[in-house]
């Protein structure tokens, strides 16, 4: 029986097994060659018909149909009383009988109600719980490709982890348990096939803080959902480890002497920082709380940068700088609402027909509204996730190029946006200063100053990030080179292997 590390990330997830000597990365996405990671997004979809609407909706529709039959009955009765001759009276009498029959035929009424509801219903109207209960699941690239090809057939949950600490009703929490349970079960299955043994234990990475404002309450909820999801997936034992601490365990294996490390993990959803005493003599020890000097973390990851880049670089081409006839600017909230891929209520509101009408009305009172039409297309065709994804691609490309041309042809043919590194830098300024405040918070909480620095997570590949943190803050500290994507999960796998070797149930 094996124990694995699972880095359940906001953007990407990974599974690694450590056998005491080396790491084995589990291949999770058959559509991506030579890659250990898988996109964390899930596409829940329907190949054919949508599921039967819930009983309460059907009953409400039945009552509506019955009200309409009642009105027709009243008219038919009136016709009967006003009839000029017995023949005409007979026609109304038959009509009254037929309507009474329809009024009381419950099964037929229900069938008709379901038909009517399905005719008007789209996937977007289904609750998350209904989707999870009755939809099909597609993970990783397959899911994202399906979403791009047939967005109307399902719903893309861009990043389930992002919602775990948010204020969720019980039914929504259960929907996330079901959804993540399926994902973890798929990971477990891949691991069991590739390792050739049962996998019963997992150490799952966790951010220091799951949510921006809900503190321990948000953390508690998120861990609860993950724990239930792991149980649903069939894991017997699961424990959680802060992501930067896991990354530190990985790097500890390469050290020759004791040191104090500042680990900065900047991922897609959160930035997590830890200051920790590392010691090559302690690599086998399971309980290291005493060595963790301080941690800090915030919901402040790459997705925030992507959204900021949309606002700075793309929104100006979607009508952001236009003024209306009254001299006021087009509402700036249009653009923040458009980007709200991690805020289901906000995004759902953005996709409503009323919101589209609002944009169309603004267009009618805006001088030269041509560019605003692009925003309307994004709204009508529900392209928010694609726009944020395009900004992510632009940001990543600008890690190795000075300038790029970003094609946005899914919005309008030949619509390209030029973005250079300066513009990206400007869009990242306030984000960077928040990351630096978080580093200060961690240092203030630590009884010892770091002797080495480690920057990890996908965002550590950005030269802008490296310059701001390393060159400008800690140039005098040695930098521990590491793998931006794998360090956290390899550390989690090390912890999992320690757990399984001592047989501790945590
Ligand atoms: N070459 C690159 N340059 C800049 N950013 C990059 C690069 N490659 C990936 N990223 C960014 O890194 C982020 C993903 O990092 P990572 O895979 O570490 O996140 P995660 O583990 O899924 O998220 P989290 O740890 O916050 O839950 C994304 O925002 C992605 O755009
Ligand atoms: Mg991560």
TrEMBL record:
Keywords from the named record: ATP-binding, Nucleotide-binding
Listed SUPFAM superfamilies: Actin-like ATPase domain
Pfam families hit by this protein: HSP70
Database matches in InterPro entries: ATPase_NBD, Hsp_70_fam
Family: Belongs to the heat shock protein 70 family.
Name of the protein in its database record: Hsp70 family protein
């Amino acid at each position: 029986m094996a124990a694995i590390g699972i880095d359940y990330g906001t953007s990407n997830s990974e599974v690694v097994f450590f056998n005491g000597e080396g790491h084995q990365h589990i291949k999770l996405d058959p559509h991506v060659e030579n890659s250990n990671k898988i996109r964390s997004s899930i596409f829940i979809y329907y190949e054919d018909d949508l599921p039967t609407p819930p009983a309460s909706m059907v009953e409400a529709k039945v009552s509506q149909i019955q009200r309409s039959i009642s009105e027709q009955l009243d008219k038919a009765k009136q016709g009967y009383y006003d009839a000029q001759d017995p023949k005409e009276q007979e026609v109304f009498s038959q009509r009254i009988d037929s309507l009474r029959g329809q009024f009381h035929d419950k099964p037929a009424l229900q069938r008709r109600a379901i038909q009517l509801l399905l005719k008007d219903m789209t996937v977007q109207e289904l609750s998350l719980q209904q989707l999870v209960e009755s939809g099909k699941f597609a993970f990783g690239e397959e899911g994202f490709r399906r979403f791009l090809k047939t967005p109307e057939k399902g719903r893309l949950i861009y990043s389930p982890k992002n919602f775990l600490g948010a204020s969720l009703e019980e039914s929504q929490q259960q929907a996330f348990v079901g959804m993540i349970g399926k994902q973890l079960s798929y990971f477990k299955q891949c691991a069991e096939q590739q390792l050739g043994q049962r996998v019963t234990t997992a150490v799952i990475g966790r951010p220091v803080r799951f949510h921006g404002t809900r503190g321990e309450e948000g953390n508690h909820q998120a861990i609860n959902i993950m724990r239930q999801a792991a149980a649903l997936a069939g894991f017997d034992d699961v424990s959680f480890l802060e992501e930067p601490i896991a990354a530190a365990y990985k790097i500890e294996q390469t050290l020759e002497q004791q040191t104090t490390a500042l680990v900065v993990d900047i991922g897609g959803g959160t930035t997590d920082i830890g200051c920790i005493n590392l010691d090559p003599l302690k690599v086998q020890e399971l309980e290291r709380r005493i060595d963790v000097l301080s941690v800090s973390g915030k919901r402040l990851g790459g997705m925030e940068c992507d959204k900021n880049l949309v606002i700075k670089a793309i929104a100006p081409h979607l009508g952001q700088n236009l003024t209306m006839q009254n001299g006021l600017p087009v509402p700036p909230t249009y653009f923040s609402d458009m980007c709200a891929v991690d805020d289901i209520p906000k995004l759902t509101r953005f996709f409503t027909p009323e919101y589209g009408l609002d944009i169309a009305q603004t267009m009618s009172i805006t001088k030269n509204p041509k560019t605003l039409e692009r925003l309307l297309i994004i709204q009508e065709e529900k392209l928010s996730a694609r726009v944020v994804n395009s900004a992510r691609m632009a940001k990543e490309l600008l890690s190795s190029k000075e300038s790029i041309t970003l094609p946005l042809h899914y919005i309008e043919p030949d619509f390209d946006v030029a973005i250079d590194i300066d513009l990206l830098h400007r869009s990242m300024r306030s984000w960077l200063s928040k990351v630096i405040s978080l580093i200060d918070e961690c240092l203030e909480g630590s009884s010892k100053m770091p002797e080495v620095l480690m920057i990890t997570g996908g965002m550590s590949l950005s030269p802008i990030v490296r310059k701001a943190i390393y060159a400008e803050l800690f140039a005098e500290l040695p930098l521990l080179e590491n793998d931006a994507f794998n360090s956290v999960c390899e550390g989690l796998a090390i912890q999992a292997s320690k757990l399984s070797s001592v047989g501790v149930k945590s």
